[in-house]
Specification:
Shape: elongated
Strand content: 15-25%
Order of helices and strands: HEEHHEH
Radius of gyration: 21 Å
Number of helices: 4
Largest sheet: 3 strands, mixed
CATH topology of the domain at 3-98: GMP Synthetase, Chain A, domain 3
CATH superfamily of the domain at 3-98: K homology (KH) domain
Structural class: alpha+beta
CATH class of the domain at 3-98: Alpha Beta
Length: about 140
């Protein structure tokens, strides 16, 4: 019995995410919302009253302005999503900037820099890292 609410929660989160993506793809009439807005995740509270929407914005210089535009347009976005998915009670939307992609890009940049420095100091290409299971990866 405890699995059923969790499954419903996940299914509803996926439906809401698709509807949000479609709504944002069609565009909003807010000049503050600029750049490429990607929904990276949707989490619903157990009582289905709150929906946390994680998103990323590219290019990064539009982050703050777009974030304010999305937060101000939340009621409008909520109504459009509710019409798409035909739900009796639409959860309250809370938009949060997803820092995970930015951190991942920073790590990848640092790894590339370390690889380049290794090549410069030793004159060789760095060895490939082993696979997760401890075995050497084959190209």
């Amino acid at each position: 019995m405890s699995e059923q609410p969790n499954t419903r929660n996940k299914r509803l989160a996926a439906v809401i995410q698709r509807a949000l993506e479609q709504t944002l793809a069609r565009g909003l009439n807010d000049p503050r919302i600029r750049g490429l807005v990607s929904i990276t995740g949707v989490e619903l509270s157990q009582d289905l009253k709150t929906c946390t929407v994680k998103f990323s914005i590219y290019p990064q210089e539009h982050e703050k302005l777009t974030m304010h535009g999305l937060r101000d347009a939340t009621a409008h976005i909520r109504r459009r999503v509710m019409k798409q998915i035909h739900i009796r009670e639409m959860p309250r939307l809370v938009f949060k900037l997803d820092e995970g992609l930015k951190k991942q890009a920073e790590v990848m940049s640092l790894l590339a820099k370390a690889r380049a420095e290794y090549s410069d100091t030793t004159g060789e290409t760095p060895p490939d890292t082993p696979a997760q299971d401890g075995k050497e990866s084959t190209p």
